[in-house]
Each structure stands twice: as C-alpha cells, then as structure tokens.
Specification:
two-stranded antiparallel sheet; 3 helices; rod-shaped; single chain; mainly beta; about 240 residues
C-alpha cells in the first residue's frame, strides 16, 4: 500500500512539473513586474494587485508531498538486555532520536505576496492567472519508514504513526517544518524493569537473551516526539 501511494504521488508530481513557469517577484505593494498580455502581445509593468485584477489569481491549494524528519523523543526510552557476564537483567537508555520518512499533507494558512508565477505557453509567453505560493502551512504527516542507529538499540517499529505541525515554504516545492508526532516504539514491561540487576528465569532456566519483538517482555507504546522536517511537495 505504501509503495502504491508513493507511485501515485510521483505520477502527480511529474504531471505538475511538465509545464514551465515564469516567476514574478515584488519588493512591496507598490513595486511592479513585467506581465505578458496575450490580447495585445505586449509586456506591461504591473503591481501584483493590478495583475490579480486583470488576470485573476489562484492561491496554492492543499498539497501532498514527502518529508525527511529528525525526531527526538520527549520521554526516556529504555532497553532491557541480559548481561553476558552474570546473566542479570540490564536496563539501559535506548536511542531517543531517529530519522523518519513521511508523507505530508500541507494546508496553506498565509501566502507569499513577494513571489508569484504564471505558466508559459509553447512560445514562452506568460498566460493564465497569477499563482500565489503558500508561505505558512498547517501540515499533517503519516510516517512511512523509521531509520535508527543500532548501537543504542532499535526500539522504534513501523506501526502507523504521525502528527501535526507548521511549515514555512521557501517555494512551491520546498519547505521546512516542525511537528509534534506520536511515534510507535517497543517498551519493556514493568516486571522486566523491576528486575534490573536480577537473574531472569523461566521454568528454572536462566534467560540469556531478550528480543524486543517478544511480546512476553515488550509491548507497543507511542512516544511523543518533536520533529524537524525538510519537505518536498509533489503536488500543488
């Protein structure tokens, strides 16, 4: 399902980028840019307000994209292991940070009046309405994959997780964001945490290894995380 979703997003992205654009920048409300008028085939200097009044305007719509985020857990994560020396339970701190690949839905809140664009026809002339680019957006993310170093123990898993946040957009293609997310991980059960420094036995036999995937010792839990995102928009 995740692969199908990515294929659809990339298809929509290729369609969106098939048409060239002319970017128009404004320093303030009184500054002007050159707009091509198809009716008389001339370039005319206009303010943004004048161009919007003549050609019409389209605000950036809800968009979909991908992001790579650096997540940091807001709670302590623990890892339970068995000491190879004396077979007692060791409780150590698990790695709290991870990199997460996510899908993103971006909902514009404000628009950048300093930079707009119009599409170009086959002759390279501007045509159609003035397109305004989102400046600040509300974003919702659904995580696809989590990457974490194994040196401190990998406790994050691939259950459905995600969150909400805000993003600042440098262009219609790229932005950065900050999110509060709930990220799924594996937590040692309380009895295991209470056995730190003791020998764990099952049926009179000492346990020598503990697997994070073993539901006898671990369970699924969601940790609140703060995430910094680099966002690439596939559709606009």
């Amino acid at each position: 399902m995740k692969i199908k979703l990515l294929n659809v997003l990339f298809l929509l992205s290729s369609i969106a980028y098939s048409q060239q654009k002319a970017y128009l920048e404004f320093e303030d409300d009184n500054s002007t840019a050159n707009f091509y008028n198809q009716e008389n085939s001339t370039n005319e200097s206009k303010t943004l307000a004048e161009a919007e009044n003549e050609f019409g305007t389209i605000n950036e719509n809800i968009s979909f994209g991908l992001s790579l985020g650096f997540n940091n857990s807001m709670e302590d994560l623990k890892l339970a292991q068995v000491s190879p020396v004396d077979k007692t339970v060791l409780i150590t701190d698990a790695q709290k940070t991870s990199f997460v690949l996510s899908t993103v839905i971006s909902i514009p809140l404000t628009f950048n009046d300093g930079k707009t664009y119009r599409y170009l026809d086959n002759n390279g002339n501007q045509m159609g309405q003035v397109h305004k680019i989102s400046e600040w957006s509300l974003i919702g993310v659904v995580n696809i994959a989590t990457f974490q170093g194994a040196q401190s123990g990998n406790v994050f898993n691939q259950k459905l997780s995600g969150g909400l946040g805000l993003s600042y957009n440098f262009s219609e293609d790229f932005g950065i964001g900050i999110c509060y997310e709930m990220l799924s991980y594996r937590k040692p059960k309380d009895f295991l945490l209470d056995m730190e420094g003791q020998e764990l036995q099952v049926g009179g036999t000492a346990v020598t290894t503990i697997d994070t995937n073993d539901n006898d010792y671990y369970y699924d839990r969601y940790a609140g995380t703060l995430a910094f995102k680099v966002i690439y928009k596939l559709t606009k």
